[in-house]
DNA sequence: TCCGTCAAGAAGTGCC
DNA sequence: GGCACTTCTTGACGGA
């Protein structure tokens, strides 16, 4: 270790480490002196709270007057004032820069660099926060998605059950002697005939389970196209499309494969619920 | 106590 | 002049 080392008191640094600043390491005695000069100059004007330790040697005086400066830690007082200024406005106009530099005993360039780095740190923190939000949003969507799949399976089994019942009823109804005239009249109404579009949906639901794509090109469905949130069975755990970062180029809710699939599941669930309602109506009309 | 490692911050560089 | 990226310095910390 070199013999020339300067320590001066600095209340603390922004990184909560010791307030000591060491200058003049073995590998950079020469540069160390530059740092000493700037450090002393800065601290003198900023807080005046520094002292040169006894073991500081006159070795550095050889280099006195050398123009360049070594980087050094800012004092806690300087950082406190810079932070306060940053909170007011994170951009720095030339006037404010000069004023701050004068007040803190720093070069205007140092103040500009500090603001530059501070903005970068703030942005990094912001990206971390955004990432956390995105993860939470994804987890909620995943839970909702799983719940929808379970609901869909349940509804499809109900549709199967009701279709079996319907087939039994239709068998019975084909025997004329077992129906009274009123029932025959009722069974002949359009209301009890399965609409072609719904029939197609049933086939889709039961064969592919993929949400009715097979009906493309078939007669237009009476079922609503937009995804509807069913009052029963849907969990829909708070998926929001808050574009609160649009000015930064982020969007939490970009359309993608996953959300597209989710959309289909919702639609499929709604169609199945309509089908069950219709089958219930047919069943009750035929039986009672 | 020394040494290596690491994180944080000050400053340099190049691009727009 | 701002920004992204990089380099360099500092100081803390743990292990030998």
From TrEMBL:
Q: Which family is this protein grouped under?
A: Belongs to the HD-ZIP homeobox family. Class I subfamily.
List, alphabetically, the InterPro entries matched.
Answer: HD (IPR001356), HDZip_class_I_plant (IPR045224), Homeobox_CS (IPR017970), Leu_zip_homeo (IPR003106)
Q: Does the keyword DNA-binding apply?
A: yes
Q: Which domain of life is it from?
A: Eukaryota
Q: Which residues form a coiled coil?
A: 124-172
**What keywords is this UniProt entry annotated with?**
Coiled coil, DNA-binding, Homeobox, Nucleus, Transcription, Transcription regulation
The Gene Ontology biological process annotation of the record reads: positive regulation of DNA-templated transcription
List the PANTHER family: HOMEOBOX-LEUCINE ZIPPER PROTEIN (PTHR24326), HOMEOBOX-LEUCINE ZIPPER PROTEIN HAT5 (PTHR24326:SF497)
- Keyword Nucleus recorded: yes
Name of the protein in its database record:
Homeobox-leucine zipper protein
Q: Where is this gene product found?
A: Nucleus
Say what the protein does: Probable transcription factor.
Q: For this protein, what is any one GO molecular function term?
A: sequence-specific DNA binding
Q: Which residue numbers delimit the DNA-binding region? A: 67-126
Q: Mind telling me which GO cellular component terms the entry cites?
A: nucleus
- Check the record and name the Pfam families matching this protein: HALZ, Homeodomain
Which CDD domains would you find in this protein's record? homeodomain
Homeobox domain location: 65-125
